[in-house]
Amino acid sequence: QVQLVESGGGLVQPGGSLRLACVASGNILSVNAMGWYRQAPGKQRELVATVTRGGNPSYGNSVLRRFTISRDNAKNTVYLQMTKLKPEDTAVYYCYADHLVEAGAGKGMEYWGKGTPVTVSS
């Protein structure tokens, strides 16, 4: 059974850094894009960053030049390096995997993690 598990969230002061990781486990044959969304209290979920299987990243406007996404295909893992954090970055960060093909499944599906909270506060 496929699972996505995030780690690395926590409390950080404004201007600080955090690195999130998300591991997709299970009998996985292939994964297309992987990435991160976030949802702050009372707000809609928004795109943070995505990365294709080939390593091409894209970012939401609010995190440009502050966050960096990367992935390790051999480990089915995606990372999010967050720098220059601001209070408005406070949210639960969710990992997702697009068109993940599990052995025996026959077709790709989208999977989501349960989220890891990030709080930016002094």
Stretches with pLDDT under 50, minimum 5 residues: none
Distance between the amino and carboxyl termini: 40 Å
- Based on CA atoms alone, the radius of gyration comes out at 14 Å
Write down the secondary-structure element order.
Answer: EEEEEEEEEEEE
Give the helix proportion (percent range): under 10%
Roughly what fraction of the amino acids lie in strands?
over 45%
Largest sheet: 8 strands, mixed
**In terms of structural class, how would the helical and strand content be classed?**
mainly beta
Shape: elongated
Number of helices: 0
Please report the total strand number as a whole number: 12
Arithmetic mean pLDDT: 96
Outline:
The protein is mainly beta and about 120 residues long.
Structure keywords:
122 residues; eight-stranded mixed beta sheet; four-stranded antiparallel beta sheet; 0% helix; elongated
Describe, in plain words, how this protein is organized in 3D.
The structure is a single chain. The strands form two sheets. Strands 2, 4, 5, 6, 7, 10, 11 and 12 form an eight-stranded mixed β-sheet that branches. The chain contains no helices and twelve strands. β6 and β7 form a beta hairpin. It is mostly beta strands and 122 residues long.
